[in-house]
Design a protein that fits this description.
single chain; about 260 residues; alpha+beta; five-stranded antiparallel sheet; four-stranded antiparallel sheet; 6 helices; globular; DNA-binding
DNA sequence: TAACTTGTTTAAAC
DNA sequence: TGTTTAAACAAGTT
């Protein structure tokens, strides 16, 4: 479930591993990614993130990685499993795209059309590292009536928030996930603006490493997650119990005391 | 075993 | 038209 924080960390890792290095060959393991067999190799000039994508930029083309549910990039070792494609570097190192459920994608896009390619995805605005204040959030969700938590998942407004961060941000700002987005006051948006950034920073701090712990089998969610996956546990800021409900077909976690809903 | 998990796209509904 | 919701899809885990 890589979202903004995890994609950011994996992008930083790819940057450290690959920039300035020559990709000597690309080894396709999963035939769904056979289009990578003919992808150009060469020096990696830049690695950057947009929304939940990592972009590995060579001279003429970029490889655009989307992790979906279970994708990860790792510096391969003997423990690497579920590798669908690997990039062999001149240094001898191998970068693997591990993806057990195979939902992830790696597109090869010519640099000259990359901007257009992203434009077709109709992606919204970034919320990190640029700090967005309450007025910005209020403005970006103008005209959105759906419940707050559902609205946060709309990638055409704001990118990077997935089902985990959506619950986390609501909790951190003391807002109910069920409130109509259009009914939030400026004061509430202001609280949201203060809270979300701190949550991202805290999660980045805890998760930043060569491997994202919670993405691996059997691993526990980070302590930095305050409500996600914690149904039945006690709320970190009061004595109430964290609840889990279905909202628009997705799991939503919240504390009814800290995030009261009065309709 | 079948339900559950997710981000994204498409279709349908409002 | 713009917005919202539901369904569908991928495949492995429980």
């Amino acid at each position: 479930m890589p979202e903004l924080c995890e994609v950011q960390i994996m992008t930083e890792n790819l940057e450290r591993w690959m920039v300035g290095q020559r990709v000597r060959s690309i080894e396709v393991v999963d035939d769904r990614l056979s289009h990578l067999k003919t992808a150009p190799t060469g020096i990696v000039n830049r690695v950057w993130r947009r929304a939940k994508y990592s972009i590995v930029e060579l001279d003429d083309v970029s490889m655009v990685i989307h992790y979906r549910m279970t994708g990860q990039v790792v510096l391969e070792d003997e423990n690497s499993r579920f590798v669908r494609v690997r990039w062999k570097l001149e240094s001898g190192q191998s970068i693997g795209f591990m993806d057990p459920r195979k939902f992830g994608t790696v597109d090869v896009i010519a640099n000259e059309v990359l901007e257009q390619w992203f434009k077709s995805k109709k992606l919204g605005q970034e919320i990190w590292p640029t700090v967005r204040d309450g007025a910005w959030w209020e403005n970006v969700y103008t005209g959105v009536k759906s419940p707050l938590k559902t609205a946060l998942l709309k990638q055409d407004r704001v990118v990077g928030i997935g089902n985990i961060l959506a619950s986390e941000f609501c909790f951190a700002s003391g807002l109910t996930p069920f409130q109509a987005t259009s009914s939030l006051t400026s004061e509430e948006w202001s609280r949201f603006g203060d809270a979300y950034y701190k949550r991202i920073e805290a999660i980045l701090l805890e998760e930043r490493s060569e491997k994202i712990g919670f993405l691996f089998e059997g691993a526990k969610n980070p302590d930095a997650f305050q409500v996600y996956g914690r149904q039945g546990e006690s709320c970190p800021s009061c004595s109430d119990v964290i609840q889990k409900v279905q909202q628009s077909g997705r799991a939503t976690y919240f504390c009814a005391s800290c995030q009261p809903f009065e309709s």
